[in-house]
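Lay summary. Proteins are chains of building blocks that fold into shapes, and those shapes determine what they do. In this project we predict the shape from the chain. Here is one chain we studied, written as its sequence of building blocks.
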Amino acid sequence: MTVTIYHNPKCGTSRNTLALIRNAGIEPTVIEYLTHPPSRESLIALIARAGLSVRDALREKGTPYAELGLDDPGLSDDQLIDAMLAHPILINRPFVDAPKGARLCRPSELVLDILPEAQKGPFTKEDGEVVIDEKGKRVR
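And here is the predicted shape, written in a compact code that computers can read:
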């Protein structure tokens, strides 16, 4: 199984997650989900594999979440999935699917728990936070 990232290149967390995957010597399958959203079946499976509820996989900030009334607790999972497929920006990011599981990688270092390979060297996030030291070990 390969590592797949559902990526938004405009998102710093997504860029950091992709960089951590590559820092482990892995070239993942990169799916820019805003232009190539997953199928209904793939999205449902990814959310389940990550151990999340559909509502937990929804992104509110910078999306039409409020305008669409998605805060209504009476909406079914199917209705929420429909909204996510119609408006992929509603899919929280970045999701990573790897041999050891799937995660919504917020924060980006959550990806470290599911990668099949160790980090190969130091890594510092775009904001200057050191995540991996010069020996390839997690700082926190």
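What the prediction tells us: The two ends are 28 Å apart (CA to CA).
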